[in-house]
User: Fold this.
Amino acid sequence: MLPLDIHIEGRQVDILPEWRDKIEEELARLQKHYHDPILHARVEIIGTGHHRLGAFEIHLVVSVPGDTITLMRQGAYVLPLIVEAFDVLDRRLHAHSEVVRQELKSHEEVAQHGRILSLFPESDYGFIETEDGLEVYFHAHAVKKGHFQNLKPGTEVKFAQEAGDEGPQAIWVQPLH
Assistant:
């Protein structure tokens, strides 16, 4: 699927059908790879004839939710230049997706409810049983508004979890009474 808004233009050069096809193919490929849609794409191919790096330039401007990515490449032949530019765009979109995912991850601390399943006071950790039966590790330092030593098996808690090295772990735990 292609972005809804695509502009392909030539400056000092006519856009050949195979160039347009390659650009649309690359945009469709990128659109499949990323969760966020490409909202707008502007591709400009410029025939310069005087660059030391080649006779053509390609300018890409792509808008995705929350960002606009621009890049420029120069080269002697248009089709390899298109491929190179879209490979760079692919890496930039991947980096953008990582940033967005990290931002979402840091904001998605969703409180869950559970019960203290077991405690190991001599080692300052315990396990919470979630409502769906999952066991979640927690450390004494994760306990908020209460003290680890006041917890008992069966105590109801709310907590947020993340993936730990050895399974799910609570990043904070709060007793409910």
Remarks:
- The chain has a mean pLDDT of 85.
- The helical segments are 17-33, 78-107.
